[in-house]
């Protein structure tokens, strides 16, 4: 029997709210629904869900502020923004502040289920991390850009599900300058390897990243991208390949990748660089290959 999965739906339109609840319930979720942003944030705090879906246009605070506040409470939750706003600037803003996926309405339920199932498969493979511990009580909404982004040293690393013994940590594998470390389309936890590059250590079984000993908190999509790039060594991954990887597909599946999907990868990589303190021109960890994609930086 599948383990319990929890979803929070934040949607002010009653018809869409019922539809989303039904789609997710059919996928095995225990679903909690909210009509407003504040209700949604409270439900996230109360239930620590695996998935949150939300609209941008809510009656009290907008969906962008909800994403910020959800991320402050749970960096491990998958966030899907479903909205009628189709402008690229809205999608970029949502991804920059921590959303994993941006879909426009009207959406196809089957497509949503496919995305959600891919997220949950990856989550099951790596295990999930708990919320970030005690958080301050809910306060009146602040100005749009007043919440400071999380960065190096801002939070302790996540505890290791199933690896509580100090002697059970996986070996550290330096990122190879010659070729990729074998990595399937989902991150394995049965044979985990910690990856190290220029002072950065990624531990897949603890779902943790540190830079020069300071913890860095990443969203699920950011963690996946960093893992696959480090594991690939100097192998270049195209934006289309990485977009397929985030969808739970094989790199060489040949499925259609839209410009918006590649743009989402760019935003996630930009977030990664900002949180890690990496530089585009002098990269320590993520190197851009212009016109092609990304790869791990050389060993310094």
In brief:
This is OmpR-like protein. The protein is an alpha/beta fold. It contains eight helices and 13 strands.
N-to-C series of helices and strands:
EHEHEHEHEHEEEEEHEHHEE
Question: Can you tell me the overall shape?
Answer: globular
At CATH level 2, the architecture of the largest domain is: Orthogonal Bundle
Low-confidence stretches: 128-168, 181-191
CATH topology (level 3) name of the largest domain: Arc Repressor Mutant, subunit A
The residue-averaged pLDDT reads 79
Could you give the count of β-strands? 13
**Cα-to-Cα separation, first versus last residue:** 47 Å
Look at the structure and name the CATH superfamily of the largest domain.
Winged helix-like DNA-binding domain superfamily/Winged helix DNA-binding domain
Count of separate structural domains: 2
The description of the largest β-sheet is: 5 strands, parallel
Derived from helix and strand composition plus strand pairing, the structural class reads: alpha/beta
Q: Give the number of helices.
A: 8
CATH C-level category of the largest domain? Mainly Alpha
Strand order of the largest sheet: 2-1-3-4-5
Query: What Rg, in angstroms, do the CA atoms define?
Result: 19 Å
* Percent strand: 15-25%
Keywords: DNA-binding, Phosphoprotein, Transcription, Transcription regulation, Two-component regulatory system
Region (Disordered): 119-171
Biased composition (Pro residues): 131-140
InterPro entries: CheY-like_superfamily, OmpR/PhoB-type_DNA-bd, Sig_transdc_resp-reg_C-effctor, Sig_transdc_resp-reg_receiver, WalR-like, WH-like_DNA-bd_sf
